[in-house]
Amino acid sequence: MIHSLFLINCSGDIFLEKHWKSVVSQSVCDYFFEAQEKAVDVENVPPVISTPHHYLISIYRDKIFFVSVIQTEVPPLFVIEFLHRVADTFQDYFGECSETAIKDNVVIVYELLEEMLDNGFPLATESNILKELIKPPTILRSVVNSITGSSNVGDTLPTGQLSNIPWRRAGVKYTNNEAYFDVIEEIDAIIDKSGSTVFAEIQGVIDSCIKLSGMPDLSLSFMNPRLLDDVSFHPCIRFKRWESERVLSFIPPDGNFRLISYRVSSQNLVAIPVYVKHLISFKENSSSGRFDVTIGPKQNMGKTVEGVVMTVHMPKAVLNMNLTATQGSYTFDPVTKVLTWDVGKITPQKLPNLKGIVNLQSGAPKPEENPSLNIQFKIQQLAISGLKVNRLDMYGEKYKPFKGVKYITKAGKFQVRT
Amino acid sequence: MAASPAYGEEKGGSSSLGEPEYGHDPASGGIFASDYKRHDDLKEMLDSNKDSLKLEAMKRIVAMIARGKNASDLFPAVVKNVACKNIEVKKLVYVYLVRYAEEQQDLALLSISTFQRGLKDPNQLIRASALRVLSSIRVPIIVPIMMLAIKEAASDMSPYVRKTAAHAIPKLYSLDSDQKDQLIEVIEKLLADKTTLVAGSVVMAFEEVCPERIDLIHKNYRKLCNLLIDVEEWGQVVIINMLTRYARTQFLSPNQNESLLEESAEKAFYGSEEEDTKDAKAEAASLAKRKPYVMDPDHRLLLRNTKPLLQSRNAAVVMAVAQLYFHLAPKAEVGVIAKALVRLLRSHSEVQYVVLQNVATMSIKRRGMFEPYLKSFYIRSTDPTQIKILKLEVLTNLANETNISTILREFQTYIRSMDKDFVAATIQAIGRCATNIGKVRDTCLNGLVQLLSNRDELVVAESVVVIKKLLQMQPAQHSEIIKHMAKLTDNIQVPMARASILWLIGEYCEHVPKIAPDVLRKMAKSFTNEEDIVKLQVINLAAKLYLTNSKQSKLLTQYVLNLAKYDQNYDIRDRARFIRQLIVPTEKSGALNKYAKKLFLAQKPAPILESSFKDRDHFQLGSLSHLLNAKAVGYQELPDWPDEAPDPSVRNVEVPEWTKCTSREKRKEKVEKPFYSDSEGESGPTESADSEPESDSEESGSSSSSGTSSSSSEEEDEEEEEEGSGEQSEEKEGEEEEEKRKKRKEKGGLRKASPGSAGSLPFPAAPCPLCSSRGLPRPLSPMGWAWWPMLSCGPWQLLSPAFGAVRTYELLHRMAGEGLSVEYCFSRRPFPGDPHMVAVQIQISNNTDAEVKSLRVSEPKLLAGMRIQEFPEIESLAPGDTASVVMGIDFCDSTQAANFQLCTHTRHFYVSIQPPVGELMAPVFMSENEFRKEQGKLTGMSEITEKLTLPEKCRSDHAIVQQVTSAANVGRVPCGADNEYRFAAKTVTSGSLVLITLEWREGAAAQLTVNSEKMVIGTMLVKDIIQALAQ
């Protein structure tokens, strides 16, 4: 299936290659570079490129292109999903998925890739199994290794691969047994010029950090499970029990993982926690324009909106911006034409405002479109959908774990059209 | 000491990473030399006998390979280390070997013997890894060795090794395709494997080696469907795609009835020939019509078992299920996939890209499915352009009379976007909406005309092109627009737009009689500077004007044609010559001249603006070929539905093969029989052959709610089946468990039913109320053990209701035991060989995929005086099997637990058995007088009396006796007085008497007296009995 993998950085250097079948020459990447050139923007490189003898399927993650070479028919999503899994694994192992991290750990990367695919077909992609096979690098271990010459390869055999629950490694032991759940909800919205909501929905995930000894069998129930309209599960969850009782019952993997992601049913009206007043105008036949934006909190259940950041992709004709912010700071990058305003916390008493003059290229026609405003924010201790965890029970082990649930609401793709 | 300089060196090596010239430039001698030297010291390190040096060297070599540098000259030095003890060195050598073996085949052969040895290793993981590397070495000379190794591994007892064998099959096939026939045999064998670990890999091998051998799937079809949910995600994708193809060849179209019944609108899709040739096939067709379509239960099974996978976190799995539903499900059911697909739109942009392509195709055929999610396709300014364009495509496909106004409003926003490619696409989309929905055509046209005054030329040009297409539909009403566009020729520079305008004016010159010649005049002036496409249209315009208005345009036409005659482009010269001959009458010109006007000014059909995704669904959705809209290498066509369903009985599996799935399938046949007229014959006899009567009698003996007749149990089965639509792992586990219990019943109990017939046993009729808590490790239902007491010979036989309460305890949970689960209960039979021991019946079930060998007890840790009689070692326990053994424990009349280890050939589990006090005794028989006498001896300290209240349900003789005998292994003593119950027993070890008296006073009050030397036992017994009665 997957023949070869090339990792390419933004400047077009192939800094890692791995072949699972016969070697494919690097020159196959020329087709990719060609497509990249044509696309102008990195985001617009088509994920699937057809070349005379191969197909290239690529993803772009963290400023790295993962380009895989395919020779025969295969579902493209299969490859894309796998490549993302590879990137996730690097992230998991090295803390970041960057060129330097990969170069520094090239041997581990190679060992990982070797284990993840056999003859181009995925073999072990569960992080629990991989960590049993190849230990992630830590500073301490690398020091010890360099002195003693010992290795990162686990000398235990990967028994997890044989087990019925491949996502959990055996023999887990902790002195403090803890289970944390983060309910993170994101509001995706498009707000139109007049401030009315064109489209809004809530997407949520529950990320878990489970550090429990032995083989705990957990069940998590909600006060209002009916809110969850569409759910996708980690493989550990027993689908049947969800279907019948709306309870999440599972033997968790060890460590951090995403338990579920869900969408809140679209019938529920979404409470938009912020509003934006804006006045952006470009004058005809003059090289300037006005920019005036105010952000204010709306119904937010008594919680403060914080971490507010606004980013605006200004039209190409904009040369510079001369603004004053009543709160926070702003930057304008004249090359990418991106305006970023880091607002911070919003207090209803004093609404943050950013206004001033936009300098346009002289002679250029006035931009027709006003740029859209992308807003980010965060509200702690609140799940905007109202979802509430009812209780967490543990079976199968005798100790009493420490349990914690945290709620947070964020802006997802939150866009205000102007 | 030696390692640290090496480490430093490696630093130096990796720092050279940043310099691309390094080593790429052989001309610079210095660098070349140092490179060469470096390899020299690597060789030295590899030859040393220190593992740390070797490791360092291998790490550097692997880093070189990763960068794509050639390290092949090190081959001899590296390959020597293939047998190195250090596991990491070994692994890195494997990496190297797999990379370069192809280039250095002779040397690679040196390593083969190591792997051959590895293939015989007792450890399954080493066997697997040896096979993996061996099969990855692409050296044709070892093909026979590989073949042999694969064959052997395919019948390995470890499923992990079998999985590796499945992976090795395509490797060998790509090395030597002559082995196909032999490989197919191996595939056939592995397809029959019933473990989830193997299923995905073998189907992958099947798809690569012999996708055309669909017949191999028949027997495994149901098993694959049932295993699907437990297969790892990548395997799921492959299996689902394969099953989609399979289903297309084996089942009838679920939508065929609708297509016949539905109105003519649908006819286009379903081939009008069918209607035409109806006469010929009249009989057959009418027959088909009369027979209502009934979905094959296997078809339904597939749909049901794949549905829960829509909830997978893996986008590829979701997409695979979605395409399966799109291609196979009845129209009414396809809708379920929309929600899942829309969910994927939140994912990475590459995933969005692929999903949107597929949604675009689906939305053409099944528009209704995505309509509720219209807003999810709204475009954000931050989306990448390729995503925007795909979303636009979907929005356009979804447009209909009711939602068009919202969509158009959305489009208006898009038109002002900064992304001009996107704006152009939006204009095209508006054009398509306008042609498809007549109601909004004028609105769209007006909007587009307004865009003609846009400042951006691209936008204007695109609008012109679209307007041209729209005007063709009703030109008469729009001469104003044509006039407006004629004026644009002065400004607009985009060739395509200019050409479009000229064509429009030429085509509708009678609507603009005054302007047309003027435009031609202007164009004649600038003719030489125009693009080719524009020139051609100028010639066309000239010709048309010449024909309609030759008075004004004759000279102009001549002029244009003369210019064209000497044009550089031969197409244009050609066209000029052709047109001149056609329109200018000369003596030589033929008959065509007369028809020139008809030729040029014929009514032309308006273009149909179609989605580029139309008809893409003849490719299997989700495939690479679909995405590229071209057949990719190795693409397997999705076959059309057959007209007649092939024989469904090919999927029936002979009973002895798979106990599990046959039982399922039989059950299914029973359930579905009313519809299943064809195969009635086969399912009939097996039903009667099963051991239903026995189990019935057993079950009716116990008090629990069991189905007493087979018909009622069938009904319940069916219910369960339906409720469990979309089988999931828990359910299956549950079933497996039930299945195992069943087996236990046979094995331990009567030992006469052959294991084969186990498969045809009916399921116990949804026996326990605990079923709802599926998935939790649940206690076995009491019924499962009902047979035991019947074997023990004692007065208990009379007290059969009590056995419902015989308790089983868990010794080793399935999770903790890594698939091995052990339960025990106290059989209450005297332990043969030692009367001082309590007999403990142990049930060991092997839920792993592998055989468990040499199960035995070892290292008992006992308190002083306690003894243990181990059960004989179980040599091996096949996967899915259950063994029942008896061991004896002398607990010394105490409730202290007996701790020991349960050992398998690989693992040791610490377990402990703690007896309830009631099991530490054996019943004795005595007369009433004897009882009184003994009781008289045991007074004072030895007598414990407790008052209690009997709950409602315990106020009958029967219930009281039952509760007491279930709490303790005691025998009833006849008693003259009403409302008084006596029981007697002796402790097993010391033989001390235990006498129990229960006096039932009026109402609920009662008094319990226990007389025993062993005060501790007495006290505990009182507690236990009271507890039992209170329940």
Automatic annotation (TrEMBL), chain A:
Classification via Pfam families: Adap_comp_sub, Clat_adaptor_s
Tree of life domain: Eukaryota
All residue ranges annotated as the MHD domain in the record: 176-417
Keyword Protein transport: yes
InterPro entries reported for this sequence: Adaptor_comp_med_subunit (IPR050431), AP2_Mu_C_sf (IPR036168), AP_mu_sigma_su (IPR022775), Clathrin_mu (IPR001392), Clathrin_mu_CS (IPR018240), Longin-like_dom_sf (IPR011012), MHD (IPR028565)
Similarity comment text for this entry: Belongs to the adaptor complexes medium subunit family.
Coiled-coil regions listed: none
Species whose genome carries this gene: Pavo cristatus (Indian peafowl)
GO biological process: intracellular protein transport; vesicle-mediated transport
Membrane topology value: Peripheral membrane protein
Protein name (Swiss-Prot/TrEMBL): Adaptor related protein complex 3 subunit mu 1
Entry GO terms, CC: clathrin adaptor complex; cytoplasmic vesicle membrane; Golgi apparatus
UniProt keyword terms in alphabetical order: Cytoplasmic vesicle, Golgi apparatus, Membrane, Protein transport, Transport
TrEMBL record, chain B:
Major localization listed first in the record, in broad terms: membrane
Feature: compositional bias, Basic and acidic residues: 664-675
Region span, Disordered: 1-31, 664-763
Topological type in the membrane: Peripheral membrane protein
Acidic residues bias (residue ranges): 689-699, 713-738
SMART domains: AP3B1_C
Keywords: Cytoplasmic vesicle, Golgi apparatus, Membrane, Phosphoprotein, Protein transport, Transport
Entry's localization field: Cytoplasmic vesicle, Clathrin-coated vesicle membrane; Golgi apparatus
InterPro entries, sorted: AP3_beta, AP3B1/2_C, AP3B_C, AP_beta, ARM-like, ARM-type_fold, Clathrin/coatomer_adapt-like_N
Function: Subunit of non-clathrin- and clathrin-associated adaptor protein complex 3 (AP-3) that plays a role in protein sorting in the late-Golgi/trans-Golgi network (TGN) and/or endosomes. The AP complexes mediate both the recruitment of clathrin to membranes and the recognition of sorting signals within the cytosolic tails of transmembrane cargo molecules. AP-3 appears to be involved in the sorting of a subset of transmembrane proteins targeted to lysosomes and lysosome-related organelles.
Family to which this protein belongs: Belongs to the adaptor complexes large subunit family.
Name of the featured protein: AP-3 complex subunit beta
Organism from which the protein derives: Pavo cristatus (Indian peafowl)
